[in-house]
Design a protein that fits this description.
Layout (H helix, E strand, L loop, with lengths): L2 E6 L13 E6 L10 H14 L7 E3 L4 H14 L2 E8 L4 E8 H5 L3
Parallel strand pairs: 1-2, 1-3, 3-4
Antiparallel strand pairs: 4-5
Length: 109
């Protein structure tokens, strides 16, 4: 079963994302990392994913402070052959999966 990685626990209900996999938070309030601690956040993300390696069929759900979303997104983009994301569709009130192949990002000039 894939994992739905959420960069930070913002206290929202992400239960509708569970149809795509098990929801896991990379950073929680218990980690005590401020949005202003970019180096500490990056170290936490690297250590977290070393202990919890992502799989190619996992998803990234963009949520939480921008620093955390970017840090987790960059890590997953480098670690996986493609980035599978979940985007919330407001009108339909559900998440929609979108893939970002490496080619589309790495070939930008």
């Amino acid at each position: 079963m894939p994992t739905v990685w959420i960069p930070a626990d913002a206290g929202h209900n992400y239960s509708t994302a569970e149809e795509f996999g098990k929801v896991r938070y990379v950073l929680t309030k218990d980690d005590g990392i401020s949005v202003f601690q970019s180096e500490r956040a990056a170290r936490h993300v690297v250590d977290f994913f070393k202990a919890n390696p992502p799989a190619p069929d996992d998803f990234l759900l963009f949520a939480g402070p921008p620093l955390f979303m970017i840090t987790v997104g960059v890590y997953l983009h480098r670690a996986l052959p493609r980035m599978r994301t979940l985007i919330y569709h407001m009108r339909e009130r559900k998440y929609i999966a979108r893939d970002i192949p490496h080619m589309e990002i790495t070939e930008v000039s």
